[in-house]
Amino acid sequence: MSSPIFLVHLDAMPDPGARGFDPHGVGHDTMFVVRNGTGVRAWRNACPHYGDTPMAWRKDAYLNHDGSRIVCHAHAAQFDLVSGACLAGPCLGQSLTQLALNVNARGEVFLLTCERGVP
User: Fold this and answer.
1) HEC string of 50-119?
2) Strand pairing partners for 15?
3) Phi and psi of 10, rounded to 5°?
4) Would you say residue 87 has pLDDT above 80?
5) Does the pLDDT of residue 102 top 90, yes or no?
């Protein structure tokens, strides 16, 4: 297991809100973190509908207008904030790939693991 990678401090995240990250320096956001109240979850930045299509149409635009769902702007799919399950759109029955996080007592958010070397 690789060392945890610091991503962000909770104070820097809007609530509700989302932010993309490039933890391995590949040149684009490969994952994103969603904050909703005290809940913080991380997902691969890839819609399950079609290959590795990025979710956001612009930097950090991962949520719908009221912050209640994750949205793939390429396919109009909508996903649950907690489970990542598709609730509407072309990929019903599929889910986003969740990534492991740790939030310490100081509010620092760390990526813990990577699947196949890329989050």
Assistant:
1) CCCCCCCCCCCCCECCCCCEEEECCCCEEEECCCCEEEECCCCCCECCEECEEECCCCEEEECCCECCEC
2) none
3) -55, -35
4) yes
5) yes
Listed by start position, the domains of the chain span 5-111
Pairing of strands 77-80, 86-88: antiparallel
How far is residue 82 from each of residues 35, 61, 95, measured CA to CA in Å?
10, 17, 11
**Cβ contacts of 19 within 8 Å, gap of 6 or more:** 8, 12, 13, 32, 33, 60
Give dist(CA 36, CA 62) in Å, integer: 13
Residue of 90, 101, 94 lying closest to 34 (CA atoms) = 101
CATH class of 5-111: mainly beta
Q: What average pLDDT score do residues 80-108 get?
A: 95
Q: Say if residues 53 and 59 touch (Cβ distance below 8 Å).
A: no
pTM to 2 decimal places: 0.91
